[in-house]
Amino acid sequence: MKKIIKLIRFIFDILLPPRCLICGEIVYKENGLCAKCFSKINFLSNQSCPICGRPYTFPIEDGNTLICGKCLSKPPVLRGLKAVFAYDDFSKNLILPFKHADRTDLVPYLSKLMFKRGKEFFEEADCIIPVPLHWKRKLKRKYNQAALLALNIEKLSQKPCLLSVLSRHRYLTSQKNKTRKERLENIKNAFKVKDANLIKNKKIVLIDDVYTTGATLNECARVLYKAGAKDVVAVVIARVCYFE
């Protein structure tokens, strides 16, 4: 049976060869990038602040933990964040089609990268929670991109994804083009926990697509802590690295 499946896949690869998720060039393996596009992605590493994920412009010795000055002076609610790559002009070619153009075929690739990047978070976690969308925005977009990522990561991590625990009960104007102060004010009191018993004393990994100022993720973390969560960290696809 396995030989037959391999043969069918081989025939399909000849007729419909796998292509790069960005440029469309033929690639060796399905759900991936060509070498040229891969080399243009600014992947982030542990050479960054463990709290907010901001990359450092200077090297840090392996094993050392260095918290950035901003997090030291005003610690965020979120205990830690890991981002796969920087949000820039090139990585937008992955983020924007997924977020606004129904490119849900990007989910397997992006969620796999997120799982690898946040592996230590997932190993320690009790559950995974995606940042929710208000029902009006979800109706317009047709899906919650964070939920699709979280469901795929659930399979990879073997940690339960709780889709209905956290809800966005207030419809907001878009966070795009807002200052940090405006984002914080806009997102305030936008979320609520439906069943606190499901997260009480739990270690939680929040899932979202892009970290800009951290307003949304920190507000989610605040609500979860208030409901009894033990620990809240986050994993995102991309981070705006020099935005304030």
Q: Short summary of the structure?
A:
This protein is an alpha/beta fold.
Structural description of this entry:
- The mean pLDDT is 88.
- Helix content is 37%, strand content 14%.
- The protein has a 4-stranded parallel β-sheet. It has a two-stranded antiparallel ribbon with strand order 3-4.
- It is an alpha/beta fold.
- Helix 5 (107-117) packs across helix 8 (145-157).
- The protein has helices at residues 2-15, 35-40, 69-73, 92-100, 107-117, 119-124, 135-141, 145-157, 180-187, 215-226; strands at residues 80-86, 127-130, 166-168, 191-193, 203-211, 231-239.
- Helix 10 (215-226) links the parallel strand 5 (203-211) and strand 6.
- The chain is built from 10 helices and 6 strands.
Q: SSE order, as H and E?
A: HHHEHHHEHHEHEEHE
Number of helices: 10
Helix content: 25-40%
Between the first and last Cα atoms, what is the distance in angstroms? Answer: 56 Å
Q: What shape does the CA trace take?
A: globular
How is the main sheet built? Answer: 4 strands, parallel
- Average pLDDT over all residues: 88
- Range of strand content: 5-15%
List strands and helices in order, with pairings.
Layout: H1 2-15, H2 35-40, H3 69-73, E1 80-86, H4 92-100, H5 107-117, H6 119-124, E2 127-130, H7 135-141, H8 145-157, E3 166-168, H9 180-187, E4 191-193, E5 203-211, H10 215-226, E6 231-239
Parallel strand pairs: 1-6, 2-5, 5-6
Antiparallel strand pairs: 3-4
Helix pairs in contact: 5-8
Q: What features would you highlight for this structure?
A:
globular, 10 helices, alpha/beta, 244 residues
